[in-house]
TrEMBL record:
Compositional bias ranges of the Low complexity kind: 259-281
Protein name in the entry: DUF317 domain-containing protein
Pfam families listed in its UniProt record: SPDY
Domain DUF317: residue ranges: 54-109, 150-218
InterPro entries assigned: DUF317_SPDY
Region (Disordered): 237-281
Length: 281
């Protein structure tokens, strides 16, 4: 499919359906909060470093940490209440919200059974790599990594090969087991990325992978799509209207603007460019 970038005479808040998701921009992070806010028993707190959500058993935390090395989100599960970490997953600040929310939603659903309900049989048993292969992603095998790349070459999922001490991995002193990222310039371009340590439950990684490789378009205002990505995305206009559930979640979210919420989408005539200032290409 040939990418069709939006015309230059659209208003910045024009609502667009964008594909692929990995080039669509950060999006509305209210979708990341929804599962955490809507699940009974999860504690919520605003801290000096960001936002913190704690599971009912205090054996898992999900945090928005804007001042951390890469900003964005971090999820951690512990052996017991606030005990030794078992695994962590991080999502940099520009990770599309659909990918992060797929992971956090699956975590909320699977944690009460300690992931047991997702480990035996059913579609969630298949590997992340298998899911990508089924969707036509190509495999590149190197000495250190097994890469799977999207058909357009702008997104990757990488499996680290070889052994790494679990403690070093959890301390961030070496690469995580899995990494996914998207960018249009692999040498100099800015990219978003997400990392998952080796003990991360496989079905959680798979949920993120399915969101990464989804062929469904996502909604963004024109201003929410990174300018460097415009020549590489396929877009179509959407009508006016705001998702009431998402708006309610955003309204009750502390520091929502710092978390990367997108502006309200303005009306756009379907298929008709809206006159206004041109964007620099």
């Amino acid at each position: 499919m040939i990418a069709t970038s939006p015309p230059g005479d659209l208003l910045p808040d024009t609502g667009l359906l964008v594909h692929p998701v990995y080039l669509a921009g950060r999006g509305d992070t209210a979708t990341v909060y929804e599962a955490l806010y809507d699940t009974r028993g999860w504690g919520k707190a605003t801290t000096a470093t960001g936002l913190m959500f704690t599971s009912p058993r205090q054996d898992a935390q999900v945090a928005y940490l804007p001042e951390s090395r890469y900003g964005g989100w971090k999820a951690v599960q512990y052996r017991g209440p606030l005990g030794t970490p078992l695994w962590w997953a991080t999502f940099s600040r520009n990770t599309p919200a659909e990918i992060t929310s797929a992971f956090t939603t699956a975590l909320v659903e699977g944690l009460p059974s300690n992931h047991r309900d997702f480990l035996h049989g059913g579609p969630d048993l298949s590997s992340p790599a298998g899911a990508l292969a089924e969707r036509g992603w190509q495999t590149d095998d190197t000495a250190m990594y097994l890469y799977q790349r999207s058909p357009d070459g702008h997104a990757y999922f990488a499996l680290r090969k070889g052994d790494l001490d679990d403690y070093m991995e959890l301390e961030g002193e070496g690469p995580a087991q899995w990494t996914m990222y998207g960018c249009v310039d692999h040498v100099n371009g800015e990219r978003w990325h997400a990392d998952f340590t080796s003990a991360t439950p496989l079905y959680l990684v798979r949920k993120a992978v399915l969101a990464l490789s989804s062929t469904e378009p996502v909604e963004r205002p024109l201003s929410g799509i990174p300018e460097r990505n415009l020549p590489y995305v396929t877009v179509s206009p959407v009508g006016a209207g705001t998702d009431q559930r998402r708006s309610a979640a955003l309204a009750r979210t502390p520091h929502a603007s710092e978390a990367g919420a997108t502006p309200t989408i303005a009306p756009a005539a379907a298929g008709v460019p809206v006159s206004g200032p041109s964007r620099r290409r």
